[in-house]
Amino acid sequence: MAPLASAQVAVTAEFQADEAPPHRLVDMCGLTFQPERVTGLDVDGLPPAVQLLVAARTGLVAPGHLARLRERGEVDHVTVPVDRSHLAQVLRFAWTGRSETGVGFTEQEFLDDLPLAQSRLGCSWFTTFDADADSEPLVVMCGDSAEDFCYAYTRQRVVGDVHWLPVGPDTADFSLELYTELMRLLYDLAVPPVSARPVLLSSLTLDEDQLQEVRDRLLATPWGRMAASGSPGRLDVCVCAPADLPGRRRLHLLDKAHVGDTLHEPFLGTDQARNVAIPLPSEAAGVQPDSCRWQVDVLDPKAVLPARWALNDVITADGTSWGVRSSTSGISIDSHGRIFTVTGTSLAQLLVQVRLRLPTARQVFRTLLSGAGVTLEESDKGRYTRRMIELWGDFAALAADLKEGPAANLLSGWVSAGKEPGRVYQDRKYLTLADVRTMTGGSEESARQLLDGYLQRSIATRGLLLTCGQCVGTAFYRLEDIGAHFRCQRCRQHNPIVRSAWKGQELEPQWYYGLDEVAYQGLRSNIQVPILALAEPAHSFQHMPEAVVRRDGYPDLEVDLWAIVDGRIVIGEAKVSDRLEPTKREEARRCAALKGLIDDLSADEFVMATTGPAWDRRTETLVNEKIASAAKVTWLTNLR
């Protein structure tokens, strides 16, 4: 049971169909809700696999539960017998849950009183808007084993769009109807111009040859032949391993009365200033205060956390982590999550009181690795990156200036080895306004605006290039460090700011602009490569600068990319070369260390980014052999 799941505590429960559900599950008979009617389908004449398919959509009411309901008042139990003549309609409803006209048991009025419909009292299924939804694959789980059914049943309620196809001797006499109706459904859902969704056939028990046979039988139906012909559109049906099925979650069961409610909460840094307000269900109410419990999801769309139980202890600001977990829906709170309660207390006293924390990316990574005995320490490049993000204001602003454009040209020009344009003293380049205009390729006004923005954020410094009258040493002096005189940085001699102190023919000294020292060191260390590698747009993004991973008995491991993107853990390497290490042995050793880090983090994606046009073939082979099995590998090249 997810609210209590952890490495130390796994709460499980077993119960029969005709008894009250165990602790922490809601008993519908324990609610004040009293249905006037409970409907159901009598499919005893159909194979057990089809009965199970129907029950997964409709639910069943046990005799004991019906008796308990009737003790509280009159309840009409209506069951409709279904025979083989109605098989097509039954299958379509069981796969989609949609009502149809012309058939009594698929009319919406009848479906509203099914047991599963009533168990969603006040709630409904919702999906987040996604422009790519019409291209997401349709999944068909094949096989009549308990494993295949349970996987399909769970996936349908967690991910959505999955259809269970029982394949076995139990359904042999009904196979023609099964394959024909399923292919008709897939054709309606996936064939262009309605959409362009591929169909993935998978199974936990059938091998690839058996799945290919299922595919052939689907394509042999009239609807399959139409899809294969390409008129009006072609439908791609492919065999897929369960591990390769997409796992993105878009389906949520939410209280209809609270959908769209926004609650603004004050925070002190990353900690909530007051306890979470626990809303009550709009329709469900328990006979007793503890008869009904629910989950409250708290989500910051810009800071979605990974769904990892190890984060439970760091997402509360007051140490009350019991009943709070980091889930795929945000931070999920058990409404009755108090550890100790007194019998007979009111509902208000039973509701959990908790203050939340939205941890930073560094806190998340440190927490996930601490259980494996791994520590993190910010590297030199990490300090440069962190300081630059502070100067620019946020990660997105820094990434935007590092991409190709006037700002990127100016920054690269400031750290370039060439002397033109600008003047170089003590290995640092200083630019005039005219130099900036030349580098950026724009007007003098645009160059002025860019410089003014950098001056206001201390990214750039205005000053003078002055020469000491005693040691003849020339250096850059910041505006805030000079007055009527300047003190030589080499011999410490005080000099007046007069005509002999500046070079050139100008009668007045020329303003020069220098880059902040940390920004200079960061750009010289190529911190722009990991920044650009993570600059793709995302709804939720948290970043941690480069860090050194330390594990007892192993060499230190410096890792460039650390991010949480839309709740997914992403790490990786960012280089200006096409290899991770000079030799094959060193590279294999590094890949093995990175694989261990991925396992410790349960990372979702590993990024290989380079400024070059391609990665070396040896590097690609080693990464695919040692890392691709643990996380999705993304290859990025030509980062500029």
Global geometry: elongated
Low-confidence stretches: none
Portion in strands: 15-25%
- What average pLDDT do the residues reach? 88
User: How many extended strands?
Assistant: 28
What is the helix tally? 20
Secondary structure: helix percent = 25-40%
Radius of gyration: 32 Å
Instruction: State the end-to-end CA separation.
Output: 47 Å
Biggest sheet strand order reads: 22-25-26-27-28
Largest sheet: 5 strands, mixed
Structural class: alpha/beta
Structure write-up:
It is built from 20 helices and 28 strands. The relative contact order is 0.07. The strands form ten sheets. A five-stranded mixed sheet has the order 22-25-26-27-28. The protein has a four-stranded parallel sheet with strand order 5-4-6-7, with helices on both faces. Helix 19 (584-601) packs parallel to helix 20. The mean pLDDT is 88. It is an alpha/beta fold. A hairpin with a 2-residue loop joins strand 25 (561-565) and strand 26.
Keywords:
single chain; 640 residues; alpha/beta; five-stranded mixed sheet; four-stranded parallel sheet; 20 helices; 31% helix; 19% strand; elongated
Secondary structure layout plus pairing:
Blueprint: E1 37-42, H1 48-58, H2 63-72, E2 76-81, H3 87-96, H4 108-111, H5 115-119, E3 123-127, E4 138-142, H6 146-158, E5 162-165, H7 175-190, E6 199-202, H8 208-219, H9 222-229, E7 237-239, E8 251-255, E9 267-268, E10 271-272, E11 295-298, E12 324-327, E13 330-334, H10 347-350, H11 361-370, E14 374-378, H12 380-392, H13 395-402, H14 406-415, E15 423-425, E16 428-430, H15 433-440, H16 444-456, E17 460-467, E18 474-478, E19 485-487, E20 494-496, E21 512-515, H17 517-524, H18 528-533, E22 541-543, E23 547-551, E24 557-559, E25 561-565, E26 568-575, H19 584-601, E27 605-610, H20 617-626, E28 632-636
Parallel strand pairs: 1-2, 4-5, 4-6, 6-7, 26-27, 27-28
Antiparallel strand pairs: 3-8, 9-10, 11-13, 12-13, 14-23, 15-16, 17-18, 17-21, 19-20, 22-25, 23-24, 25-26
Helix pairs in contact: 1-3, 3-7, 7-9, 12-17, 15-16, 19-20
